[in-house]
Structure formats: C-alpha cells, structure tokens
Amino acid sequence: MRRRMIVPVLLLALVTAGLPAAAAETGDSGGVSGRFDRPHPGFAPFWTTLRESTPERAGLDPAPISAALAKIRNWTQPQGAAKPLFAGAVTLLAHDGRVVTRTATGQALRYADGIGTELPAGEQVPMRTDTIFDLASISKLFTSIAVMQQVEAGRVDLARTVASYLPEFAANGKDAITVEQLLTHTSGLPPFLPLWRDHPDKPSRILGALTAKLQQPPGKAYIYSDLNLIALGVLVEKVTGDPLDVLVRKGITAPLGMRDTGYNPADKARTAATEFMTVPARGMVRGEVHDENAWSLGGVAGHAGVFGTAEDLAVLGQTILNGGTYRGHRILRERTLRQMMTNHNTGFPDNAHGLGFELDQRWYMEGLSSPRTAGHTGFTGTSLVIDPVSRSVAVLLSNRVHPSRAWGSNNPARRALAQGFAQSLAVHPRHGRDAWHSAANEEQAAVLRTGPLYQRGPATLHFAAFVDTEATDKVSVEASVDGGVNWQPLTLTATGPGAPADAVTTLTGAGHRAWWRVSATLPPAASVTLRWRYASDKQYTGRGVFLDGIRVSDRRGVLLDAERHPETLTAQGWTPVRR
Fold first, then answer.
1. Which class for 25: exposed (0-12), middle (13-18), buried (19 or more C-beta within 10 A)?
2. For residues 284 and 267, what is the distance between their CA atoms, to the nearest angstrom?
3. What pLDDT digit, counting tens, does each position of 540-558 carry?
4. Rounded mean pLDDT of the chain?
5. Hey, which residues does 551 pair with through a beta bridge?
6. DSSP strand E in 332-457: where?
7. CA geometry: angle at 562 spanning 556 and 563, to 5°?
8. In DSSP terms, which residues pair with 461 in a beta bridge?
9. Within 13 A of 320's CA, how many CA atoms are on the CB side?
10. Which residue from 106, 271, 335, 555 puts its CA 20 to 30 A from 283's CA?
C-alpha cells in the first residue's frame, strides 16, 4: 500500500518539473508569479518548498527591495541626535517558494547597559542571518496552531466555554467565554497583568491569569490580551496531558524541520540580546525570554517564549501558504487554515482577526495588506507577514528593545520592508506599454490634467483604474467648464473585482488587486477640462493608484485618446510606468 501511494506523488513531481514556464507560474489557481495584479485565490501547490533565488529570477523588481533594505541598515545607526531604531535586524523575503533576499545588518549584542553604553568593538556580536531571536508575541501563532490541532483531533470545540475545560476560568463572570473568543481577542480580558510581580510562584501566576477580572463584557470589544493566550496554553496542556513546549515541538517545529525554533534556547551565543532589565533585576537579557510573565512561568507560556530564526519563520509561512503542508508533513488541514485566516471580528472593522492570526493590518503589512493577508508582530521587534494573494512571506526580526524598550518602535521598518516587497511586484498596464502611477504621500495632491475638450453633444469618459490605498486616500475625477477656475466631481461607475457597487465620486479600496473599468458622463458644455486628483496623507500608501486607457468620446467620435497621445495630458505627481 505504501509503495502504491508513493508512485502518484513521484509522478506528480516529475510532471510539475516539466511544466512550461507559464503553467508553472500560474499553478492551479490562475495567479501569476511576480504580479501584484494577478492574485492567487487559493493555496500554493503542496509541494512548494523554499529555495534560493533572486528578485529578478522571481519576476520582481529588485530596486524597491534594495531601497527598503537600505532604510533598515540606516536605522541601525544614530540619526543625528536620535538613537538607532534598533541595534540590528535580519530580513527574509520569499515569493512563490523562492527566497529572494536574506540579509543581516547591525549587531546582535551592542550595548552594556540600559542607557546605551556601547561595548568595546571586540565584545559586540554581529547579526547573522541565522541569529536566533526572541519572537515575543509571534509565539501566539504557535499556541493558536496547537489549539487548532486539538480542534482537528476532537479534543477542543471552539464554541464550547473555556470554563468547561478549565473550571477555575469561570471566576469573575467569565463562565460564558468561548475558546473562539480567546483566539479572536474578544473575551473582554485586560491586555495583561503583572503576574510575575503579584504572585510568588508558577501555580499562583497561572491561577491569577485564569481568574482575572474582565475589562469589558465578552464579545463587546476587541482587546488584544496576553491573558487570552496564556489561558489557551493551559487549556491545550489540560486536554492533551503534555506541556506546551512538547506540543509545539511534536506538532509544529519537528515535522517542519524548524531546528532553531522553540522555547528556552540552548545555544544562547547565537541569540540576539534584548533589554537591560532592572525591574525585575535581570541585567542584559540574552537567551532568556524577554517577557516578564513568560520568564516567571519558566520561559514557556501561551503568549510568549518562542525563539526562532528568519529561516524557520519563512518555513512556517510557506507551510501556511501551502495549505498546512511542507515537505510532505501536514500540520493542519486546508479547511482549518481557511477558518484561521477568515475574519471573525467583522464587528470590529479596524481589528480584523482570524483564529490566532491578525489580518489586513496596514500598520505593519503596508502594501501587502489584504483581507487574506495574515501575520503577527512581537514586542521585541519581530514581524511575520504571510500574503496568500501573492504567495509571499516577509520576515523582519530586530532587537528593537536592546538595550531599552523606551527607545521607540520599529513599525517604520516593518512597513518599509512590506512596502518595498509590494512595490517589487508588478502591476502591468491595462492598455499599451505604460500606465500613469501615483503613490503620493504628500500634503499636495497629485494631479493629471487634460486640455480643453470640445464636445459636440453628450460625451463619455472611459478609463481603467487600479486602486490600492487606505480608506482615507481617494482619487477623484473632476471637470471644469470655465477653463480650470472651478471644478466639480464627476459621478463614476466602476466595474471589476472589489469595485464599488454604486456610483461614487471618489475611488478608494484595497485588497482586491484588480483593474476596474470606470466610466462617467461629462457635464454639458461646449468645452470641458478634466483632471484626476489623488490625495493621500503621509501614513500608509499601499501600492497607490494606476490609470490607463483614458479615452473620451462623443456621438461624433473620439475627443481624447491618451494611449495614442499621452502628450495631451499634463502630470504633477503622476509618472508613466511599465510595471
């Protein structure tokens, strides 16, 4: 029986290896490698494994990636009087199973104390691509996967109350909270409690977490809480009889070959230092979990404690993209992963969350954001972005709390890496060789303008638009009948995936990653001038806005064909691009 099962798999691998390039690019779902505008609707082929490559060989533009990596290198150095954003960082980007960049910059150990006294050069430890990091809250993903493995095994029911598994959890009005509410951070529990300070030993700290008082009624608010995952860690230990670190090793890291990932790392010399702590008095923390509560629980907890490398996190990310399988080892069913990566928090629009995974969080996913983009961050300066739409994984590991958590956030670096990756993916023009593009994040709006158009009766505007912006960044089409003194917005009708269902005066949106066909009727006048106006703030830009195939016609013929005569348009903040 075993021999008969192996043959089809071998045949499948051989057939796939011989596929033409176009077929290999599209896989079985219609998406295209290297393209931002050709999204994949499903999981990657289960046989996809990570292999070394380059941006060019993966169909990516290397320039935006290089620019992002240069920013990350610069952030390891003082910026005038400002301190470095972090001592060092490791980045890894993978696309369609190809590792297109893997870099290390700065120092894994740089400082001697909490005020930033630098160690002598010979005592500093340079960052390496295989440096082991305290992943902090990315640990929550490992706990969530362990929970869902027990759901698949029939030992845990998402709809059951937590108290039905852990009776002590019912204290203080928590008897109705479900397992699902812990996974989606809608339990109403407070963000954290200083368990390490307020309780003398591990059993009392666990009890303190389980018996905590609510901050909000269950299901009425999104409150990101470590206590949710501490409880889930205890729950899976209760239903299996195994410690959490054993469950994670047997169920996740060992099957996937993640050799450098786990709790309480043995090879402390390879770890990146975190904070110099005085309360509690721990000195420079290196090779021990940074989180005080996890430390007080022996380094193993549901919310923190996992250490790992960029390479191992990329393997986990590719496993998710593959539908739960890597190198023939399945850790979750596809159905389970779809459930984990579906937004369960529709009542809290800014806090889209699956079962364990954060979804569509532009504050660190930037241009890779979409309703299906999943990931998590960690307080120590870590982030993992998994984008099934483009089959991409972005890993940024930094030691931003070294030597002090008070030195600031590394969110700018998280966004820069994700944005550079998104910009490396192509948006091909809808018509001809190029399209107009703007990613303006300036106070002055980008404007693309026609000259006067002399109508000979009712006239209609048609163009294609690719829009990937945050909700507050909008593009409008405006008309002037007095030579540009006064402007009025046109009413636009758009069709295509993710297009607005009704007529609108502005276009905005993200996540659909598709061109729209847009049309509008011009106001009746002898002469009309048109302009496209894109206004953006300085926060998030996404992939920006692309315009193509601009054409105006009346009953007698064509008044404007910008594809044939692009010189008829004047641009400020818009650039012709070919991808």
1. middle
2. 16
3. 889 999 999 999 999 999 9
4. 93
5. 462, 561
6. 358-359, 374-378, 382-387, 392-398, 435-438, 446-450, 453-454
7. 110
8. 520, 552
9. 31
10. 106
